[in-house]
């Protein structure tokens, strides 16, 4: 390996981000040769990255057929959201304890962008700001372990999150929930921040459950 070649961990991080950004979609094949060319990496390091991502549940390796992005069912997406509710509640609690004035201003700016997006019907900007808010709360919390787990499980359900963001009327429901999280963190009220996140995630879970029931009904 040359000194400039990406490590397997670095390649895994790039693939993970590509899944989060929707560049690699569920069931898409991840061809080692293509990834080697894309990342200018060795076959061994690409293979190591895919093994790591398989251990995280983002990728599944198929015997004699390579690897592909793992598709997550609605039922599993609901379970993952329940895990997120606990961990993101913890991060919000810590963020309320540790947020700085500069970070408070940034959170308020994100909240304003979300309000403007809802007012103009710009769902893409709202979805982007939504992801940014959750990411920044995790970073502000300085709770590294919880934040790493959240990032891994969020990547598994990115497709469901996109559909959720596009759900009719969903932004109007989730906007006040997000603003409540921002206000509680900026008020340095850990209990209120954790409770606000839990209410928001319960709303997410209820919407996913409603989607699951609708899918079952359509298939009946």
TrEMBL record:
Entries under InterPro entries matching the protein: GntR_C, TF_FadR/GntR_C, Tscrpt_reg_HTH_GntR, WH-like_DNA-bd_sf, WH_DNA-bd_sf
Ranges for domain HTH gntR-type: 5-72
Family annotation (SMART domains): FCD, HTH_GNTR
Name this polypeptide is given: DNA-binding GntR family transcriptional regulator
Highest taxon above the source species: Bacteria
Organism expressing this protein natively: Homoserinimonas aerilata
Gene3D superfamilies: GntR ligand-binding domain-like, Winged helix-like DNA-binding domain superfamily/Winged helix DNA-binding domain
KW Disulfide bond (keyword) present: no
Keywords linked to the UniProt accession: DNA-binding, Transcription, Transcription regulation
PROSITE patterns to which the protein is assigned, alphabetical: HTH_GNTR (PS50949)
Lineage: Bacteria, Bacillati, Actinomycetota, Actinomycetes, Micrococcales
CDD domains: WHTH_GntR (cd07377)
